Structure formats: structure tokens, C-alpha cells
Amino acid sequence: MNLTMKVLNMRIRMMLFCSLLLLIACESPKQEISSRVNELPYYSEASFTPQWFDSKLAVPADFHSIPAFSLVNQNGKEITQDTYKNKIQIVSFFFTTCPGICPKMASNMYLIQEEFSDDSEVRLISFSVTPDYDTESVLREYADSKGVKDGKWDLLTGDRSQIYSLGRNAYFIEEDLGLAKSEDDFIHTENIVLIDKEQHIRGIYNGLNKTSIAQLVADVKTLESS
To answer: What positions does the domain Thioredoxin occupy (predicted)?
Structure first.
């Protein structure tokens, strides 16, 4: 066999091999992260120590839950805890002028929004930690720039003390345990918290980490099926 035929045969073999790889890739299912457990734990304090119950009915009546609040969103609409009745909530804290972690978090929140775009059971909430600056009009402009969908993702502003109390005492959004803080101490965190339909905390995630975001998506689906 001359050199030309050898080269031709080698090219044919390579083409057949590449075609086989392409066929296998097309037939392989998309890999997704599965939830770590069949049932998600509950959390009641800032250490995020997991607690387990046999069923929803077994959760104590006085178990930690998100308290009532009243704020306004990017459209000037009043938003209360009742707005999210029977909704799974994905919660973050941000401010519109943040040059650091907030833009990346907003991008990942957008990905979550798109994942559950047609799912009426899931809502996204982002509380502004600079509500004096982040007025309704500022939030409206920010929402437009980040692809926020009205009715799916609320950017909330209002009373600063209420927002900070929610962040620290209800959502336990910060990680620096044991440090006494006042309302004057700024909240700045990459954490995202998952809340179930009964207003209980069911997970905390790094809003900058794609793997953590994928786990959040998987855990939301676990909540929906439980």
C-alpha cells in the first residue's frame, strides 16, 4: 500500500471515530445535579444546624419561620409575606451600586429565574440593603438591566430596620456567627436562602458558585415533589 492510500485510510478511520463520538454525545442525557437527600432539612438559627422531621405535620407549631413584613417592589407594589403564600422562595440581599459580588449574584439569580420561568410555585426575592438609595425608580431601572421578570422576581425596598432585622434575625443571611451587630452594621453577603411554602428555611447556598446554584435548583425540585 502506497503512502497516499495509507493517509487516506487513516483519515477515513478518524472520520468514523469522530462520527461515533458525536453519536454517543447526542444520545447521552444531559447531566444534572440531583438533590443530596429525598427530603430537605429544616433550619432554625444562624449556625444552620440541620433538623429533620418525619413529615410537615411533625414540624412544631412554634418552629422558626419568616415573620410578617411589608415592603414595596420595583413597581411600587406593596409586597407582604402573604404575597408568597404557598410559594417556594429563593432569597438574596443586594444593593444596586454594588461593584463586587452583587452583579455576579444577579446573573446567577437570573439563571434561577429562567430555570423556573414557567413554574408558578417558585418566586425570587432580593432585598435591598441600601433602601434609602434604592428607591422604586432605581430598582425599576436595575430590574430592566438585569432581566428581572415582574411577577417572578421582586426587588424589595422600604424600611431599613425592617430589612436588616429580616436579614439577620429571620433569614440568618450572614455567616459571621457570634459577632454582635447593630442596624448600622452593613449587610453584604453572597448567601442565598431557600424558603418553603410554610415560610421555613430549607437551605443556604453560595450565590457566586455555579455548583451551589445547581444544587439549589435541584433542592427546589425536591421541595416541589415532597
So the answer is: 60-225
Record the pTM: 0.82
Binding-site residues, in ranges, read 98, 102, 188
Residue 165, CA atoms < 13 Å, CB-side half-sphere: 11
For residue range 191-224, what is the model confidence (pLDDT) as tens digits? 999 999 999 999 999 999 999 999 999 999 999 9
Beta-sheet pairing, 201-206 with 191-195? antiparallel
Q: Which residues participate in the annotated binding site for Cu cation?
A: 98, 102, 188
CATH fold, domain 56-225, is Glutaredoxin (3.40.30)
173, 167 contact by CB (below 8 A) = yes
Domains of the chain by residue range: 1-31, 56-225
